[in-house]
Design goal:
The chain has four helices and 24 strands. By secondary structure, it is an alpha/beta fold. It folds into two domains: 135 residues, UDP N-Acetylglucosamine Acyltransferase, domain 1 (3 Solenoid); 57 residues, Up-down Bundle (Udp N-acetylglucosamine O-acyltransferase, Domain 2), CATH 1.20.1180.10. Helix 3 runs antiparallel to helix 4. The mean pLDDT is 94.
Length: 261
């Protein structure tokens, strides 16, 4: 296993022979790396941290560091990261807190760009893109294939729905609807569905048509959110809308902070 002589790897760390550790890295005693991981240089891995296979971590990134939470008292909480993620320069991802479930998680096949912060007890799905400067407070959930843009801060306890796209500099203080294009005007607004992104992910024309119709009920009718949700569920029950719209309805029903419309 190639480990640069300037790096410090604590006794107890589990590092397969297929991994590469560049210069000036620090790996703590409770770190477990999967196969073929690469730490480019100046990377800090701390706490109870598990990385899956084929992750590439760029300089000045800190993973598994203690959470920025005054209630944290050095409990043995965790950070778990999946496979094939690219984590660019100066990213910080905190481990969980005892009061928040004890674990921060990142899925697989994500691109996490420079200066991103992922706070404690957050959960990032698969295939997500977090561009430069995106900032996630604690307890944030980002569902599969969601995309943020640069310098987008997300308030704690918010959920970003699957396949959503958030415009640059948009401050998120409520849940973001699945499939939506959400950006800032004078206030945050969801501008219909993320059609291009959904097509790239293999959504069929009929699925996109159903989602458009559901969004018209949410945004283009005179119904309030409760009434629109009931109308969408009626059409799901009648078989007019399929599982993609059923997921949208369930997302709205579960929202605790309200949704951006």
């Amino acid at each position: 296993m190639p480990i640069h002589p300037s790096s410090i790897v604590a006794s107890g760390a589990v590092i397969p022979d297929s991994c590469t550790i560049g210069p000036f890295c620090t790996v703590g005693p409770n770190v477990v790396l999967g196969e073929r991981c690469e730490l480019v240089s100046h990377v800090v891995l701390d706490g109870h941290l598990t990385l899956g296979d084929s992750n590439r971590v760029f300089p000045f990134t800190s993973l598994g560091i203690s959470p920025q939470d005054l209630k944290y008292n050095n409990e043995p909480t965790r950070l778990t990261i999946g496979d094939r993620n690219t984590i660019r320069e100066c990213v910080t991802i905190s481990r969980g807190t005892a009061g928040g479930g004890g674990e921060t998680t990142v899925g697989s096949d994500c691109l996490i760009m420079a200066y991103v912060h992922i706070g404690h007890d957050s959960h990032i799905g698969n295939g997500c893109i977090l561009p430069n400067g995106a900032t996630l407070a604690g307890h944030v959930t980002v569902q599969d294939y969601a995309t943020l843009s640069a310098n987008a801060p997300v308030h704690q306890y918010c959920t970003i729905g699957a396949y959503a796209y958030i415009g640059g500099g948009t401050t998120i203080t409520q849940d973001v609807l699945p499939y939506s294009l959400t950006s800032v005007r004078r206030e945050n607004s969801a501008f219909g569905i993320n059609k291009v992104g959904l097509e790239r992910r293999g959504f069929t024309p009929d699925e996109i048509k159903q989602l458009r119709q559901a969004y018209r009920l949410l945004q283009g009718s005179k119904l309030n959110t409760t009434q629109a949700l009931a109308a969408i569920r009626e059409r799901v029950t009648a078989g007019e809308f399929g599982p993609r719209v059923a997921y949208l309805a369930e997302f709205i029903a579960r929202s605790e902070r309200g949704i951006i419309k």
